[in-house]
Write a structure and sequence with these properties.
Number of domains: 3
Helix content: 40-55%
Structural class: alpha/beta
Number of helices: 13
Number of strands: 12
Radius of gyration: 24 Å
CATH architecture of the largest domain: 3-Layer(aba) Sandwich
Order of helices and strands: HHHHEHEHEHEEHEHEHEHEEHEEH
CATH superfamily of the largest domain: Response regulator
Length: 392
């Protein structure tokens, strides 16, 4: 399908972000900045719509007086176009599984925690989120994305929903931010430091524990996060001369059910398990732990298991899960703040003050599942509190 829909053409404010300096007249964007409110709030005050709060009205009117702002027809027309809605697209795999993980798709903690981070910031700016899910293998996801774009001031896309070319075309209609995707010349991508986090984990397993055989349990096919994590692990394994198993047999699809099913298939096929299984995320690691326990395989005594994300449940598992921590809610908050700045400026990725590819920090959290004993984990946590090792 085509995203070139003239009815959706996004008209970037461009010069309206000049700031009211020199010979240029102040704009509605300057008023919003000085008043510390959204453009939509300024519009409501100036147009007498929806009875804005008295505090908001006072701040806007003070900013108008301070700047000497005089709304004209063009600015008024542009301001009222804002819907105060951001569309969010989530990829949700459909599992048809009668096991203990059958309801997992109804409890997707990771994307829901990201969305919570967006929601907190959206409320601060007076925006609402409109969330739509698409299947991993949905044949015409672009059609549903475009339908959501018509109802929104901008879009945030979880994972890789569209190709780079489709993203470029969509970004001509509305500003676009992706999560765990790939930046384009007109979109911004927000993600955790996948490479740095995985390299720290790999070095810990190789050099601190001496493990010589690994497997990487990947996420779903084509996921940029999974691909980056897998490449970083492979690079460290190759540099150390250790064996790494990967491929379609080692794919958990980011789900606990997928992780458990992969281990069950491998054991049934007589595959000798490696000394350590590095999972692309915590949810698939949960499934791996469940399958290994069902076969009487000790963790970490026989096989070490690690995750990525450090979801809250990781510290409550038995054994506690070693993982790479990223601030999940911060991913959502950063994505929304970035998109909000694009909506209020020119909508172009180059306008983002943090660039087109925003990587948030990660850190290794050592727990028992990798082979660290309770005492060493406790000592590492104390060192972290004192500004030393970044462990919990």
């Amino acid at each position: 399908m085509s995203f070139d829909d003239p009815a959706l053409e996004y008209q970037a404010p461009g010069a309206a972000s000049a700031g009211g300096h020199g010979d240029q007249a102040p704009t509605i964007y300057d008023v919003a900045r000085v008043a510390g409110v959204s453009i939509a709030s300024v519009s409501r005050v100036l147009n007498g719509q929806q009875n804005p709060r008295q505090e908001t009205r006072d701040r806007v009117l003070r900013a108008v007086a301070e700047l000497g702002f005089a709304p004209d027809g063009a600015a008024r027309a542009l301001s009222v176009r804002l819907k105060e809605v951001v569309g969010v697209i989530v990829r949700r795999p459909r599992w048809h599984d009668s096991s203990m993980f059958a309801d997992e798709d109804e409890n997707l903690q990771f994307p829901d925690m990201i969305n919570r981070g967006m929601e907190i910031v959206a409320q601060r700016h007076g925006f609402d989120l409109l969330i739509r899910s698409v299947g991993l293998d949905e044949p015409d996801a672009g059609r549903r994305v475009l339908a959501l774009a018509r109802k929104s001031d901008g879009l945030i896309l979880h994972d890789r929903v569209l190709s780079p070319a489709e993203l470029e075309r969509l970004s001509r209609q509305v500003p676009v931010v992706t999560l765990a995707g790939e930046p384009t010349s007109s979109t911004v991508n927000v993600h955790g430091d996948n490479e740095g986090g995985m390299r720290a984990l790999a070095r810990h397993l190789i050099h601190d524990h001496g493990y010589a055989t690994f497997a990487f349990l990947a996420g779903h096919e084509g996921s940029p996060d999974s691909l980056t994590r897998g490449r970083a692990l492979a690079s460290e394994a190759a540099a150390a001369g250790v064996t790494l198993l990967a491929g379609d047999d080692w794919r958990g699809g980011y789900q606990a059910a997928g992780g458990a099913q992969a281990i069950e298939r491998l054991i049934a096929g007589g595959v000798r398990l490696p000394r350590a299984i590095v999972c692309a995320n915590d949810q698939s690691a949960i499934g791996v732990l469940h399958a290994l326990a069902a076969h009487g395989i000790s963790v970490p005594g026989d096989v070490a298991v690690t995750g990525f994300d450090d979801m809250p449940v990781a510290r409550h598992l038995r054994p506690q899960l070693t993982s790479v921590r990223q601030s999940i809610q911060d991913l959502g908050a950063t994505a929304f703040e970035t998109l909000y700045s694009m909506i209020n400026r020119s909508g172009q990725a180059k306008e983002s003050p943090r660039g087109r590819d925003i990587a948030l920090p990660t850190r290794l959290v050592r727990r028992e599942s990798c082979g660290c004993g309770p005492q060493s984990v406790k000592s590492a946590a104390q060192a972290a509190d004192l500004g030393g090792a970044a462990c919990a």
